[in-house]
Design a protein that fits this description.
The chain has 249 residues and is mainly β. The protein is built from two helices and 19 strands. The protein is elongated.
């Protein structure tokens, strides 16, 4: 199926730049990889995706190991250098911007949000790119938390935290005349939850008031009035947050 897609559609999303370190004949090579992710929890796996012209592809396959440092915002310049030149033209490990930490399995670059040493477990050919899956065998965190470098076409630092100000709710009708209500709200609020039925004219019938089992999350089943009008909605309130609504099918 042929579909006309906007050019460079993938640039509309964000990612964290990874500095991939690979043992090479002339010393450890470092490349910047925009598509680098954690992809499995237990065991912990990392995926890095390399383009067809990336000279480090045979190096990873030959070494059977690599490390990934997920960049901090201070490493934008280093990521720019590592991503703009090739191991075939320069020895990138000679840059004074690069520091390698003590390792147990494979060299890794210091200064990031987190660095992981990986054993290569699988190579996945894609139509153009190639994905390398590595199992994490060692991890390194900075002494103090640092902020990640964000790639969104250009490179950015994170802004202020997004503070939720509204409840979001969904429902499921149950066979016994009750409705299951699931809702989320800003977790910092300690207030109780209020679940109500709202008819199309705006009249409100309080159904229940509940202390949340976990901050910011509600799961509750409440009975519904038998004579509820068509088009009624469920309203969920929580502290000062804007109420959330869900439609009763």
């Amino acid at each position: 199926m042929n579909v006309d897609l906007p050019p460079q559609l993938w640039r509309t999303l964000t990612s964290t730049v990874g500095l991939v370190a690979v043992p090479a004949e002339r010393g450890t090579n470092v490349l910047a990889v925009e598509w680098s992710y954690f992809v499995n929890k237990e065991p912990l796996y990392v995926a890095v995706v390399l383009g067809p012209r990336t000279a480090s592809r045979p190096l990873i396959a030959a070494a059977g190991r690599f490390a990934v440092t997920f960049c901090a915002e201070e490493q934008a310049g280093l990521a720019g250098l590592a991503g703009s030149c090739s191991v075939t033209e320069v020895d990138k490990h000679t840059s004074e911007a690069l520091r390698f930490g003590p390792y147990t399995f494979t060299p890794w670059v210091t200064g990031g949000v987190v660095a992981v040493e990986c054993a290569l477990r699988q190579v996945v050919p894609l139509p153009v790119h190639t994905m390398y899956l590595g199992e994490v065998v060692a991890a390194h965190l900075p002494e103090q938390p640092v902020r990640p470098l964000v790639k969104h076409d250009g490179m950015y630092a994170l802004g202020a935290p997004v503070r939720g100000d509204a409840v979001t709710a969904a429902v499921r009708m149950l066979d016994d005349g009750r409705v299951r209500v699931v809702a989320s709200a800003p977790a910092a609020s300690p207030a109780h939850w209020r679940v109500s039925l709202v008819d199309p004219a705006g009249a409100v019938v309080r159904l229940d008031e509940i202390a949340g089992e976990r901050p910011g999350r509600l799961v509750v089943e409440v009975p519904l009035p038998v004579d509820r009008p068509p088009g009624a909605r469920i309203r969920v309130e929580h502290g000062d947050a804007r109420p959330g609504h869900a439609v009763l099918a």
